[in-house]
Amino acid sequence: MITPIVVYEPRDLRVYETIDEAELAIEAIDAMNGDIYVFDAEGRILNVAVKNEHSRVRLIASPSAPCCPEWLRGIVTEYLLALGYPGETVKGVSLKDLLEVAGFPRRPSTPDS
Question: Which of 15, 23, 35, 18 is nearest to 79 (CA)?
Fold first, then answer.
């Protein structure tokens, strides 16, 4: 897994500098309901493992997990546009550059935090 870790729920995006931070922040119930997608910095989809609603979430990188950098780039782009970032700042840039433009992981997922 390559950090930062990106956690996406419909209408919400969070980015964590470390795997540990992401695991602690993800609620077990969301993982159990399948309401989230978790990516590493390269767009690799991470498995979210949880035993029950009271246990800690674990992120697992599977060698066979799909790598979807364009999908993640689209998610981050749409989110930042909704927050008011200028289109020329976020459209058509690489995922790595997009995360840097957004200030990830140096700040939380919203520009006003």
Answer: 15
**Three-class SS of residue 73?**
helix
Residues paired with 12 in a beta bridge: 9
Q: Would you say 39 and 22 are in contact if contact means Cβ atoms under 8 Å apart?
A: no
Question: Tens digits of per-residue pLDDT, 53-83?
Answer: 888 999 999 888 889 999 999 999 998 888 8
Distance CA 99, CA 41 (A): 8
Rounded CA gap, 17 and 58, in Å?
16
Model-wide pTM > 0.90: no
Neighbours of 70 (CB within 10 A): 10
In order of 17, 52, 67, 74, the CA distances from 6 in angstroms are 9, 22, 13, 13
